[in-house]
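Appendix B, record 7
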Amino acid sequence: ARRTLSVFGGSQGARQLDRTVAEMIGELRQRGDLQVLVATGPAHVHEVAPTEHAAGDLLVRVVGFIERMDLALAASDVAVARAGSGTIAAPRPPATRVTSVEVSSTS
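Structure tokens (predicted):
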């Protein structure tokens, strides 16, 4: 069975995320054990869609919008998402909220 990686840029899209995913797909062409679902936002499908046909063994599906985000998340082994109302919504009142993450190296 293939593992599923889902990438959600949000309804307005996230251009840098879309570009990064397009590059990543090229690097993962030989991964027959993976499938990737990419939701770019309707205005940005053209930036990632050409990679569907050049994905090699990797299965790729690029869409502008996902109507049932709950099902897409349930089908995902890993999800990369920009925070938004359809992906990560804060409960009311907020129990825990991460607003930013800083990664640094001490080498």
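Remarks on this record: The mean pLDDT is 79. The chain has three helices and four strands.
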